[in-house]
Amino acid sequence: MTTNLLGFDLAALADFCDQLGEKRFRATQLFRWIHQRGVGDLSQMTDLARSLRDKLARHAHVQAMPVVSTQRSADGTIKWLFDVGDGNLIESVFIPESDRGTLCVSSQAGCAVGCRFCSTGHQGFSRNLQTSEILAQLWHAEHMLRREFDQQERVITNVVMMGMGEPLQNYAQLLPALRAMLDDHGYGLSRRRVTVSTSGVVPVMQRLSQDLPVALAVSLHASNDALRDHLVPLNRKYPIDELLRACAAYQQFAPRDFITFEYCMLDAVNDRTEHAHELVALIRRHAASGLSVKLNLIPFNPFAASGLKRSTSQQVQAFASVLLDAGIVTTVRKTRGDDIDAACGQLAGDVKDRTDVQQRMASQRQAMIGGVPVVALSDGLSVGR
Ligand code: SF4
């Protein structure tokens, strides 16, 4: 069994060269061949001595995961389905825009957080992805697209860790992958162009702020704890005030002057103007500790098992108006790739669930009053609509 070199950041690759009795600087050459040129065949790395190439071939290889399918949306979005073994399939999505190309990357096969509105969350959790499996998504997409567009320069300008999984619950494997993305000998992306999205794993946010403070997005989705406990179960461990304090602390190190809050708009669940006012009050309270946020309102992409509906565009606009009137930068995310189930919250490869999440979610659905969502406000009001 040889080692997959896609699993290393540059420092770890230098250690690997060292262990083979080679000079550490060889790692830089290797790293460039792999990540900048997209070459996986060691014999083609022609500025390395033949003896080194032969030695590497005995101990190492460069291999992405098999691609099960490549789907293309009418809007140019591309979704890849990768086979990561043992019956688990994961997804990555490329979203082209006029001024950037963004790759949405998965960090786990499934997810243990179990957010109610998320297709991945409904599948349960199988396992963490290895660094090589996280980086292979970028490696495959970048070099396939360069060949397709007949382009030498970078195609993927931004990476968002917003695919399947909670990246901060797979921190040990995530960190080297982020380092390779940022490395000038790798993908050379700036910290502003790499975003980690979290449902709020507070202690690991603190570690990320010290290790590699890339841009941060937080899946908020609710304006009070009662509602967030229901939508994002991790909230029971790290409630909203604790999460927002952690965001304010992160911001001191963040590459942007704001933290992005994601808010999925769910009809009659979290989309009333009362919720928007509650959100304004929450953000204002934490602004005193230096927190500055940008709200990203995401139209829900429905899937059958969720039992939830998308807010109307009038509801979204009314909600956005309250935030904008309060001076909070707010955008409504355009839905991309929904004709190939590649839109936000729709990624759901295929996962051998090792948890009882599907059962748990089914009983939570039963707990909803007569199938009608409960609108929870922090003042104790609960209204079925
Ligand atoms: S939204 Fe993110 S954290 Fe929540 S279940 Fe989906 S993948 Fe996991």
Q: Name the poorly predicted regions.
A: 368-385
Taking all residues together, what is the mean pLDDT? 90
Strand order of the largest sheet: 3-4-5-6-9-10-11-12-13-14
Strand content: 15-25%
Number of strands: 16
What is the CATH class of the largest domain? Alpha Beta
SS element count, helices: 12
* Radius of gyration based on Cα positions: 22 Å
Structural class: alpha/beta
State the domain count. 2
Run of helices and strands? EHHHEEEEEEHEHEHEHEHHEHEHEHEE
- In CATH, the homologous superfamily of the largest domain goes by the name Aldolase class I
Q: What characterizes the major β-sheet?
A: 10 strands, mixed
Bound molecules: iron/sulfur cluster
Overview of the structural elements:
The protein has 385 residues and is α/β, with parallel strands linked by helices. It is 35% helix and 19% strand. The chain has two domains: 3-61, DNA polymerase, domain 1 (Orthogonal Bundle); 67-384, TIM Barrel, CATH 3.20.20. The protein has twelve helices and 16 strands. The strands form four sheets. It has a ten-stranded mixed sheet. It has a two-stranded parallel ribbon with strand order 1-2. Strand 5 (89-97) and strand 6 (100-104) form a beta hairpin. It is globular and about 70 Å long. Iron/sulfur cluster binds at residues 111, 113-115, 118, 120-121, 164-166, 199, 219.
Describe the protein's topology.
Elements: E1 3-4, H1 10-19, H2 26-36, H3 50-59, E2 60-61, E3 67-72, E4 78-83, E5 89-97, E6 100-104, E7 108-110, H4 119-123, E8 125-128, H5 131-149, E9 158-161, H6 171-182, E10 194-198, H7 202-211, E11 215-219, H8 225-231, H9 240-251, E12 259-265, H10 273-287, E13 293-299, H11 313-325, E14 329-332, H12 357-367, E15 374-376, E16 382-384
Parallel strand pairs: 1-2, 6-9, 9-10, 10-11, 11-12, 12-13, 13-14
Antiparallel strand pairs: 3-4, 4-5, 5-6, 7-8, 15-16
Helix pairs in contact: 1-2, 5-6, 7-9, 9-10, 10-11
Bound molecules: iron/sulfur cluster (SF4).
The site of iron/sulfur cluster (SF4) has 12 residues, from helix 4.
